[in-house]
Write a sequence for this structure.
């Protein structure tokens, strides 16, 4: 099976812009979670989608949003970018809510200048 | 609020020496604990989970609810064990919100 893929892998944006990141889960996986990884805060949970519904959300401002499509692919959007949004954004997929293993993608490195 | 603490940012041992990576957690409910590992230039991947009570690559971890700890141990470290190790917690029965520790970088010297 192909692993979790994330596009783009690298992105440079300017403060105030918005950005959309994409995640394609492993075939058959219906749950997609997003995490932000920074040197200072480590890995922090953003949100999780299952069958196109957001089931849980972390403590991030409303500028961070996401969605999931019927084919389980997911996107996350960050509006009005701030310098502090520079991070590695990781996507993880799992088969269902009772499966404890999450499979991670390679991440999208976002740099905000 | 749930929290995972890995007190050591860096841990360096020699090949063949025992290794213990510490993890402490705070959570009011019934937690599920995991260890994830990230080797150089590879993706974050699950190493082991406490409910499986299994040994993976010679590593074991025991959940101690009294001490709220889930330390990762290996009796004889190998150079290929060098990696970043993350302890993570989720609510029992709900795997989709992992709370991670900040990680410990393990270096195994020849």
């Amino acid at each position: 099976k192909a692993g979790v893929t994330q596009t783009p892998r690298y992105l440079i944006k300017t403060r105030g812009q918005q950005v959309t990141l994409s995640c394609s889960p492993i075939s058959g996986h219906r749950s997609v979670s997003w995490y932000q990884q920074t040197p200072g805060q480590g890995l922090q949970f953003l949100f999780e989608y299952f069958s196109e519904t957001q089931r849980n959300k972390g403590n991030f401002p409303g500028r961070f949003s996401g969605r999931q499509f019927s084919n389980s692919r997911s996107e996350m959007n960050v509006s009005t970018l701030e310098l502090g949004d520079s991070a590695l954004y990781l996507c993880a997929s799992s088969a269902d809510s009772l499966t404890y293993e999450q499979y991670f993608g390679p991440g999208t490195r976002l740099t905000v200048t | 609020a749930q929290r995972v603490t890995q007190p050591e940012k860096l841990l360096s041992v020699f090949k063949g020496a025992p290794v213990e990576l510490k993890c402490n957690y705070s959570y009011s409910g019934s937690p599920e604990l995991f260890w994830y590992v990230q080797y150089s230039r590879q993706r974050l991947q699950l190493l082991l989970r406490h409910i499986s009570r299994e040994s993976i690559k010679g590593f074991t971890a025991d959940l101690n609810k009294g001490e709220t700890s889930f330390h990762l141990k290996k009796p004889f470290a190998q150079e290929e064990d060098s990696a970043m190790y993350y302890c993570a917690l989720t609510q029992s029965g709900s795997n989709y919100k992992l709370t991670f520790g900040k990680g410990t970088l393990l270096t195994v010297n020849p």
Summary: Chain B has a mean pLDDT of 91.
